[in-house]
Amino acid sequence: MKILKFGGTSVKDAQRIRHMVDILIRRKEESKDEFHIVCSAMKGITDGLIELAMIAESGDTSYKERIDGIWTRQEEAVAELFAPEGLDDRAADRLGNQVLNGLASLVNELREITHGIFLVRECSPRSLDLVMSFGERMNNYLIAQYMLSLGLPSLFIDARKVVRTNASHGRAEVDFAITNSLVREFFSDSVSPGTIGVVTGFIASTERGITTTLGRNGSDYTASILGAALGARDIEIWTDVDGVLEADPRVVEGAKVIADLSIDEAMEMSYFGAEVLHPSTMLPAVETNIPIWIKNTMNPQVRGTRISRQKSTSRHAAVTGIASIPRVAMVNIIGGGMLGSKGLAGKIFSTLGKCDANIIMISQASSEHSICVVIRQEEADLAQRVLRTELDHELRVKQVQDIEVTPDLEVVSIIGGGMRGTPGVSGKLFYSLGNQGINVIAIAQGSSEMNISLVIHSRDHAKALQAIHQGFFGQEGDE
Ligand code: ADP
Ligand code: ASP
Ligand code: MG
Questions:
Q1: How do beta strands 370-376 and 361-364 pair?
Q2: Whole-structure pTM value
Q3: What is 2-240's CATH superfamily?
Q4: Whose CA is nearest to atom 5 of ligand 1?
Q5: Which whole number is the average pLDDT over 23-32?
Q6: Of 5, 35, 304, 432, which sees the most CB atoms within 10 A?
């Protein structure tokens, strides 16, 4: 059994949904292997839903037009998908109307919820999760109905029934013990052999049935959660690129597909910004040893990338890939009085934890004169304010001189299992950047020696990625 996940671009409209279902039909003809699918919302819908909620919260009535826009996309898709050749007009109409009714009741529910947000002028993270859930719910319902209309035995499955999380809205944590048993029970009781489960990615629920989400790009994670629970042979993530590439293809033109990637490297690449995969996708697969494939819906014959316990294949001996996290800020805690002071680092990190700031990178000069912590830009103001309050005593006795925030930065990382014990990698990295006049603001290397991360100014984004790629994978960089 396999799990196939299709991302937003692969199911963004009727034409792409048709194409995706063609892949499934071919798969069924070629192999007896059973499979279930997990689909995202249509590309742009989740962003649209977030904007919609923000508009309603601000008291602007134009949220209504946004909902109309979402409804129009559903109507267009239904009109195209349910007017199939070979069906007489009346039958097609009947089917189309039935599906439209199903979608209309979802959109009406969305209207009511958004109206509630508009009335109270407040959209809590919990309400936002509920609003975002409609993207996956509408699309998977539509896809399952379309597959049924073609005679493919399919069942729409709302993942909220089977994926159980805590209540950390926006990026909830999965309770694997409960989820695994719910998934197994549901599939054995309610999905008959040969039926294709069409499962909503991204969404889940708490013990009390409150809707949660797994973080942006979370449908990848849903696929591996299901795959691990059901003991799938493979998990396939179908997207719009030929696999995991050496660097973001939108920035680095010559980036090539990495044929095999180790689990550790895939985790580092996605954590450090390669959005082709949700960073948690690898977690369930590590334990169960299920390979994850990244494949291109628009180019299905290409092999793609395999992520497994095996070592990676890289064109460069030490470095496998380059990734970057945009829109970060550096919080710099400066002070000569920090020298040898015990417990200050602990206080800084626990304070950042209290204000929910996610620490991306830490760097401390060996002189112990300053500690700098890189966090998301939107978290920086709050972090600075709370740090000032919590370190009030240290500031007054001049143990800490100042807490500065530098915005508009980016973390760039090179990743590769082969870096361990290979000399000269940092030399090449800094030479590549220096050669292009790019200033490096801070540096960190994980003790795993699988990653070197550095902070640069956002304006150097493209230039830095291109220079590093050229340095390691360009002609002179090839080894
Ligand atoms: P989906 O909608 O299928 O989930 P995403 O947009 O989330 O797709 O992820 C695929 C995109 O990730 C690609 O189109 C590409 O622009 C971007 N990307 C960034 N870094 C990489 C990388 N190293 N390899 C492949 N794609 C990458
Ligand atoms: N629809 C969600 C998002 O846009 C989840 C996903 O696409 O994986 O983030
Ligand atoms: Mg994605």
A1: antiparallel
A2: 0.93
A3: Acetylglutamate kinase-like (3.40.1160.10)
A4: 276
A5: 93
A6: 5
